[in-house]
């Protein structure tokens, strides 16, 4: 690339677009986000109060209050190590391809194509299934919120909803969460600003109300931090680990924001800061949300048996003693769920688009296009929506479908995050990170080891059924969805990839 000179004859500082060209791509997206906007997007992608609310059954079944509180703290520290690991690498390779591009760029030539293929498919599949999990959880959560109102017999008014009714609610939510990013992309940063204030005000109202009213009394601090009442039937240690899925799901979006690298002005600086800052912000928000709720938990065994696996509406109603009041307090979480769906759909479309422009997805010619009118990868956005709607049909076969969506999303994203870290640490000795603006040296190496260890634990852990007594409705179908995506990617590699896939265009590293 020719060097650009200032009027005084001195070279200009490289721009984000020129750096992107050096990495092998032409800038096609508008760079309209600031550092804080990326941090806020990290917060929205996680939407911690909402995410923890829709997956609270995992920790309650796993061990109750202690599992919920200490599991969150443990996973937050682990995910901080993951965030640091990704931030270091992103400061060197800031593209919308995220961990997929980074894995390709860091890998030696003998394994470059295969490692990037595995990472790319894991990353795209993780984005799609996490978006699906978010939207499906919003549907289940909304139905359970309706159940705070009871009929004359004392049953929730939506307790007898048919499967198709819940699915139709999911379809409506999915359409909304994809239509807004499609036609109002320029307004998304403002929606994220709104979400921050909405979260603070709404969650504060929930926590103050339930603690002050505490209709059925408050638990002691000793009970909150030490009570361990596993309901899973597994041995205590394994039960605690399975309960970690609540926290892992809440923080699973850690690296998804790397897909926005081509929409910020200084991605090599802004995005790494946002990844780490987002984790710290979410960790504090999660602790501030979970601990007050733990003080007003009703009977753990009763909460673990709720058919929808959505205990928070029951908890809020128990604490307030009033159906209308409980529903009003739950509205902020419902809205936050919708906003989280917007952020996840946006990030998923960018990840799919970035992978498609290297020809790695069947029909890449369609999915790599940037729509001239909306100025976003609209086709990729629609592809993600269609796949999510189709996978949602699993719910007709099992009421435990949400376990599959949330579990496999965490598995895929964790695997994709670990791929560039494994290559950087074990095959390259972290030598490429010397060029980055975010290099923590020995501390970074420690974080890399933790990141890899977490991946090795998460894959088998979150494929396991929540309860030891496995039935059609308690079976964890995450492994089925996981194997399905693996088979599709392997088949496409055999049919097309092994002869045609070359990966991103970049200057080769020393091998």
Automatic annotation (TrEMBL):
It is a multi-pass membrane protein. It is found in: Membrane. Its main location: membrane. Coiled coil: none annotated. The chain crosses the membrane at residues 38-58, 70-93, 114-143, 163-184, 196-217, 237-258, 279-304, 324-347, 378-398, 404-427, 439-462, 474-496. It comes from the Eukaryota. Signal peptide: none annotated. One of its GO terms (cellular component) is membrane. GO terms for molecular function: transmembrane transporter activity. InterPro entries: AA/rel_permease1. Keywords: Membrane, Transmembrane, Transmembrane helix, Transport. This is Uncharacterized protein. It comes from Penicillium alfredii.
């Amino acid at each position: 690339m020719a060097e650009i000179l200032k009027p005084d004859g001195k070279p200009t500082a490289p721009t984000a677009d020129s750096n992107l060209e050096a990495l092998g791509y032409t800038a096609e997206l508008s760079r309209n986000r600031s550092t804080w906007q990326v941090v806020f997007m990290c917060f929205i992608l996680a939407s911690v109060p909402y995410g923890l609310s829709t997956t609270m059954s995992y920790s309650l079944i796993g061990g109750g209050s202690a599992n919920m509180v200490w599991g969150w703290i443990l996973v937050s520290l682990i995910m901080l190590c993951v965030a640091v690991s990704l931030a270091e690498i992103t400061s060197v390779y800031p593209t919308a391809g995220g961990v997929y591009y980074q894995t390709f760029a860091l890998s030696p030539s003998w394994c470059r194509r295969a490692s990037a293929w595995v990472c790319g498919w894991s990353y795209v599949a993780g984005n799609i299934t996490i978006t699906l999990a978010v939207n499906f959880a919003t549907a289940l959560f909304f139905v359970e919120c309706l159940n705070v109102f009871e009929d004359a017999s004392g049953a929730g008014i939506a307790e007898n909803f048919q499967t198709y009714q819940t699915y139709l609610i999911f379809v409506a939510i999915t359409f909304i969460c994809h239509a807004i990013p499609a036609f109002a992309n320029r307004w998304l940063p403002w929606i994220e600003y709104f979400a921050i204030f909405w979260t603070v005000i709404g969650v504060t109202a929930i926590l103050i109300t339930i603690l002050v009213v505490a209709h059925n009394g408050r638990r002691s601090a000793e009970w909150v931090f030490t009570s361990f009442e596993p309901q899973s039937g597994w041995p205590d240690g394994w039960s605690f680990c399975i309960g970690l899925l609540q926290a892992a799901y809440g923080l699973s979006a850690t690296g998804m924001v790397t897909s926005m690298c081509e929409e910020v002005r200084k991605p090599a600086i802004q995005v790494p800061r946002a990844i780490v800052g987002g984790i710290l912000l979410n960790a504090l928000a999660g602790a501030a949300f979970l601990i007050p709720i733990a003080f007003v938990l009703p009977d753990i065994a009763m909460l673990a048996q709720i058919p929808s696996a959505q205990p928070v509406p029951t908890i809020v109603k128990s604490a307030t003693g009033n159906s209308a009041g409980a529903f009003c307090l739950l509205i902020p979480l419902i809205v936050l769920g919708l906003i989280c769906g917007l952020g996840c759909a946006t990030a998923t479309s960018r990840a799919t688009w970035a992978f498609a422009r290297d020809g790695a997805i069947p029909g890449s010619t369609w999915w790599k296009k940037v729509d001239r009118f909306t100025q976003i990868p609209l086709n990729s956005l629609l592809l993600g929506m269609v796949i999510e709607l189709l996978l949602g049909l699993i719910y007709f076969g099992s009421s435990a479908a949400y376990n599959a969506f949330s579990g496999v999303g965490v598995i895929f994203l964790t695997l994709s995050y670990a791929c560039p870290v494994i290559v950087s640490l074990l095959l390259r000795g972290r030598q490429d990170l010397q060029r980055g603006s975010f290099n923590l040296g020995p501390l970074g190496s420690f974080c890399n080891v933790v990141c890899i260890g977490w991946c090795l634990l998460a894959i088998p852990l979150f494929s396991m059924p929540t309860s030891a007594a496995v039935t059609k409705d308690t079976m964890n179908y995450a492994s089925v969805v996981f194997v399905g995506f693996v088979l599709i990617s392997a088949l496409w590699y055999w049919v097309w990839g092994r002869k045609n896939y070359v990966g991103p265009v970049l200057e080769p590293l020393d091998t």
